[in-house]
Amino acid sequence: MEAKNETQLREFIFLGFSSLSSGHEYLFSIFLAAYVATMMGNLMLLILVLMDSRLHSPMYFFLSHLSCLDICISSVVVPKILANLLRRKHTISYNQCLAQTFFLIGFAGCEPALLAVMAYDRYAAICRPLYYSHLMSNRVCIQLAVATWVWGFLDAALHVALASTLSFCGVNRIPHIFCDVPPLLKIACSDTGVNELANHITSIFVGLGPLLFIFLSYFYILASILRIRSNTSRLKAFSTCASHIIVVNVCLGNAFLNYNQPSTGYSLETDTFIATMFCVVNPMLNPLIYSLRNKEVKAALRKVLHCQRAV
């Protein structure tokens, strides 16, 4: 039994790109370009929020946290993928695998809660404008931001604690491109009933709960907007919510596909595609969605570029 444990603890092998006998250089270039774009786009948003006083509001405060999450989610996964593509040996040690799982679930678990907080911010701004400064004071914003981070990492701690008790009986080939709970459960040889139950329960609280809160918030927002008589004011109110709605659909849609697989599971190719969308494409798209659709962000960017030219 000790020999088995030694084998299972040494390393795991990712099967996500195992079917490709060539083209690793192209994949490396694509993932590297996506990672650089993610870092630059999200860092740009963070810098703009810090530098431009017009963006010192609760909405952009939470947007800066979303940018931090996107940077973190991508950084947990992509550098290891790039390293494996370079050496063409798609492996990860047991301890690194648990660490990657912990941080990935932690950051991914923060995102639905943060999107729910951002929906509440839009609700307060549109439905309760007279009380907005009180409902979204600096103290409240900081408390909500801290709560979202704690929420995500409590979820991660539970899943990794349960995953650390799994036995793999020498089976170390993970049908995925990074470590996460669902692929680890697929190859475990011990009983995974408790893990699966925890996965379903936390999916309700971490994923479905925030989603229902977002729907409820937008129900009241829509009702308030429809009561506005001015078409210009109505369009302005809609535009402040458009970017958030797009991000909610993209992020939570991919998260649902990634963590709520059918009982038979996805094929390896589908799993790889969904995982890539979730951890590589989504973090790259979020800053583009907010910067391309937001007049204040574009104005702040033009101001920074103008100052750079003047210097």
What would a concise description of this structure say?
With 311 residues, this protein is an all-alpha fold. It contains eleven helices and three strands. The chain has helices spanning 2-10, 24-51, 58-87, 94-127, 132-135, 138-163, 181-187, 193-226, 231-259, 268-293, 295-310; strands at residues 11-14, 91-93, 173-174.
SSE arrangement:
Layout: H1 2-10, E1 11-14, H2 24-51, H3 58-87, E2 91-93, H4 94-127, H5 132-135, H6 138-163, E3 173-174, H7 181-187, H8 193-226, H9 231-259, H10 268-293, H11 295-310
Helix pairs in contact: 2-3, 2-10, 3-4, 3-10, 4-6, 4-8, 4-9, 6-8, 8-9, 9-10
Mean pLDDT: 84
Q: What CATH architecture would you give?
A: Up-down Bundle
Give me the Rg, rounded.
21 Å
CATH homolog superfamily? Rhodopsin 7-helix transmembrane proteins
Q: Give the neighbour order of strands across the main sheet.
A: 2-1-3
The main sheet comes to:
3 strands, mixed
Name the descriptors.
311 residues; mainly alpha
How would you describe what is shown here?
By secondary structure, the chain is mostly helical. Helix content is 78%, strand content 3%. The chain has 11 helices and 3 strands; from the N terminus they run H-E-H-H-E-H-H-H-E-H-H-H-H-H. Strands 2-1-3 form a 3-stranded mixed sheet. Helix 2 runs antiparallel to helix 3 (58-87), helix 3 runs antiparallel to helix 4 and helix 4 packs antiparallel against helix 6. Residues 1-8 have low confidence and may be disordered.
